[in-house]
Every structure is written in C-alpha cells, then in structure tokens.
Amino acid sequence: MLDIALIRRDPDRVRRSLRRRGIDSAIVADLLRLDAEFRNALGELERLQSQRNALSAQIGRAADKAAAADEHRNALDALKAQIESAQTMVAATGPDASASPLAEVLQNIPNLLDDAVPDGASAADNAVLRTWGAPPAFDFSPKPHWEIGTSLGILDFERAVKLSGSRFSILSGAGARLSRALATFFLERAARNEYTEVAPPYLVTRDTMWSTGQLTKFSDQMFFDQAADLFMIPTSEVPLTALRADEVLDFGELPKRYTAYSPCFRKEAGAAGKDTRGLMRQHQFEKVELVWLTAPEGSDAALERLVADAESLLQELGLPYRAVALCGTDVGFNAAKTIDLEVWLPSQGVYREISSCSNCTDFQARRANIRFRRDTKGKLEFVHTLNGSALAIGRTLVAILENCQQADGSVRIPSALVPHFGADRIVRS
RNA sequence: GGAGAGGUGGCAGAGUGGUCGAAUGCACUCGCUUGGAAAGCGAGCAGGGGUGAUAAGCCUCUCGGGAGUUCGAAUCUCCCCCUCUCCGCCA
Does residue A319 have a pLDDT over 80? Predict the structure, then answer.
C-alpha cells in the first residue's frame, strides 16, 4: 500500500508510475477527491467528540454528577446523535474500512516504480542485463524434459492425473532424490550467505495474505479453505515477509535475511493452455525463497545481492541463464523493481523464468506494519522488504534434465550437486 | 474437542465507571555526581490519525479484535481470536 500522505504531496509522481505500468492514472484524482471527503468528515467527527468530551469532563468534576448530567441532557443527546451520524460518515469514507471507496482505490494502487525500471508494453520490452554461460551444443536433437524424465522412469504424469488431476506431477526414484538434493543444496548456500532458515506454516490467515499484498481483487490464484478461512501459500514469500508483522525491529538487526524451503500452491487459472505439458506450470511446486528486511537506504544494494545469491546457484550448477530487468508493465503489484533470472531450455530454445527477485520497498511493510527505530530518539520507520526465489526447484530440475541430457538418454548431474545427490548421473533403471 | 485461568506501554506489573493513555519497577535517553565507573539523585520516554512546515502546539482515537450499555468504559454486557494449565484425541 502506498502512503496516502505521499499521494497527497506528490500525486504526479504516482500518476507517472501508474502510466508506466499501463494503468489509467485517473484513479489518482478519484482518490484525492475521496480523501478530501474523508478528512472533511473526520474533522467534523473530531470536533463533535471534543465537545462531548469537554461536557463529560465537566460532569466528572461536578459534586452532584447526576444533576450535572441532567443539566446538559439536551446538549448531550444532540451531540450523541450527531456523533453517531458523523461516525457512520467517517467509516463509510475512510481508508481503514475495507468496504469504503477510498480503501478500495488505495489498496489497489500498485507500488511506485523505481526510476531504473525500463519502460515497455510487454515482456518483450524487458531489458537483458547480462547473459551467463553458453547454451549447450548437442550432436543430437535435445528432448523436452517430460520425455527425458518419463523414459528414465523418474517423472510420472499419468499417475499424477489419476491422483489429483491435471497440472500435478510425480517424481520418483532418482527424480525425487534430485529434487531433495536441490532443496538441500539451495538451503546450504542460503545458510552460507547468512540467511536464517525458517520452516513456516503453509496455510496462512486472510490478514497475513492481505499484509503481503497478495489479496488484490484481481487475485484468484490461491487455494483457499473456506471453512477455516485459511489460504495455502502461493510462495513462502508470504510467511517469511509477514514473519515480523506488527513488530518494531532493532536497527542493529537490519538487514535481516530469511530463507524457507516450501511447497507453493497456485491455481494458474489464467494460464490455461500455457505450458500444459511437463513441470513448468503446476498447481503445486517447491521453491527455496529468500527474503530481506532492510533499512530504506539499504534496499537497492540488497536487491543486487539477492540477485547475486540466486545467480551463483545457477553458475554453480553450470546452467546457462540471463538476468532481465522487468519493464514497467511487467513489474508486479508489490514490487518497485524486479530482476528475473531466466534459464536456458534447449527443447524450447528459449530462456524461461527460474527466479524473480523484487524490491518491494516499504509497500508490504506498510501493510504488514513492520517497522524499525533508527535510534532511541528516532521515530518509527517502515522497513523495506525484498524477496526472490533461489531457486524454483521444479524448474531447476527441468533445466538440469534438458541441459545435461546425453545422447544415450542419461542425464549428467552437475558436479556441485553430486555430494547431495549421491551419484554423477541418472540412467534408466 | 471439554474445563479453568488470563490477554494492559520495549519487558514485568497495578488499575473493576469520571482529567487514566494508564501507578510502580526494569530497560532506555539526557543531566547532576565521579579521576573514571557503579550506586545515588533529577528529568524524559507508547502508537495511529487530523491540523501545522514531514516543527512546536492543539484536537482525536487506541488497554487482544469486534459489537453494545452509559453523558462518560482498560474497568460493565455479548460475540470472536489468542496464550497458559488440566483432561480427551492424535503424529
């Protein structure tokens, strides 16, 4: 959520950001009008409350309180009625009531874009920052991962359909072991980079989901238990970012780094027909997530390090990739700036997203109320939050199967992974 | 799931209808004291919102959350959530 005071102070900055995201900036004028109405109503309410409080205090000081109350009966009755209607007005117009038009507009304005974000109309306008590694040269026609995995007997889509329907998969034998090896490998690297490992809940409350900005009116991507009013996390960004919600952090504690290995659940309703084969787009996948809480002045550098932490994994695995700065229309609701890492997939001959690293500045922290005090006399400030995958496990497994496939149908295991996996190749068993 | 107890400021902990946003202690900040420190003494020290200059000041709201009673609620009533203890069940 944006700071409403910032929108009042510098509405043009908000309009510019919205335009770069391809969103109609007329909502800023709506918001300013609704905000003026709200502050009007609030002023009226507080004026009335002040009058009532003065009279009540007078009664409280009187020797005969009942008599004093009777004396002011008419004024008090009138005030009571006026306060009641003023309260109704404030509630209906204020930014805190979830049903108010002001809250509706405010809560659906995405984060301010960073100036460094490139302009663009679609993903085609994303800026390639750097490319690492060369796509492997095959003296045979490289197969897609689902064929490799199926023929090795480590990937089973048919039985997954039997159990759970489409967009689920089963890893077995060396496949399951490879997935686990990746998780362990990623977590060990995160620990080495001073992230605190967390094993969070995979179901979170509506409040938690709201606090990290996942509950916009456009988001129907989440699995949800209606009876318990609990959401299955679409990423462990949610519990990791909200971990310190409503807390005041010590300045010396920042930057705080968290990591978690978790499943992620997504309906992918809007992606029907896309990536229908294979592991690329599943209702359930696993991921090691990195989250930072930083002081505002530290978040730019933090994003660079976060991206570097994710990149180093791809480099250790020897997987060719490129780093891409998302353009204005591609940056998500919460983020001010996003760097994606895209890994090379030989079967498709394209780079595909394997990590997305974002600086969310104070946007989530304001919702989740995560603050810090710079010094004992200082005021409370919101932290900046960042998140990124390091890495998506299913997609890493896909990249290994495809990039490391051999002419005989076996798959070479990257040497960095051999100690965790326990073998240097996967052969048909 | 059942029974009981409880949720108050950074922490501990008073407060059961009237200047209570809240005693006291600890922690913290500043000052005095000291060669320096400790101790001691004095002062300060919750957050949100509105208005003001992102100042001071003023106003308003907040004692787990929500609704209610009342001129007035931390205090009374109702609902919900959470924590602790005991029992049941389970991994």
Answer: yes
